[in-house]
Amino acid sequence: MSWNEDDQYYYEQEAAKDEFIEEISHQAISEFSNDRLRSFYEQNPDVMRPAIDALQEGKKLYDLNRYSASLVFSMTCIELLLKATILKPIVSGVVHHEALAAIIVKHALGQTGFDRYKELLETLISTFTNLELKNISRDEQSSKLFNECKELQDIRNGIIHRGEVCTEGDAEKALRVSVAVYTLIVVPIIEALNLKVGERGAIGPAYFYRDSPAYDPFHSP
After folding, report:
1. Domain boundaries of the chain, sorted by first residue
2. Fewer Cβ close by (within 10 Å): the C or N end of the chain?
3. H or E element at residue 93
4. In the predicted structure, residue 108 carries a pLDDT above the cut 90
């Protein structure tokens, strides 16, 4: 298959998107503060709810032996945790005009592929916590959590775009990885802001939930 003008145009558009995302990412981190991020969550306490709903739907489907569908919902959970719950507040915080912010978020975060957001995630995590994305892994796993997300995304894409199916093991792994993303990435950032996750995944001031156990997205409603 030969390279044509359409291929060149697509390549240039994708390169421009990557450059735009990188520019927005650096600006977002440099201009954002703990107080602004905390304020976003206080004004949008249910921002994580769609991710929690997707995780619990994935668990229900897994229990029904619908493994491919379960994996798709688990991957939806992971993407919502990383993009809607963590990255969107940072990117949208750069722009103070609500309508314009929504457009920028759509174009900056609307693309698939975790590698597009790896640098932003790395900077965000290290800025707000003492963690490094490259070192985060599930306790019993040697593979890094971010790499597991990418591997599962490839399986999800095969299910959606090529009608492939996954194994029970793949579906179980996707559930565990989604919980790990919540526990090892989202919660440390939330807690670094002196916030806590409460009932139904709502995010609020830590003192609201000081007498409540840690929220378990896998088993709690």
Report:
1. 33-89+115-209
2. N
3. helix 88-94
4. no
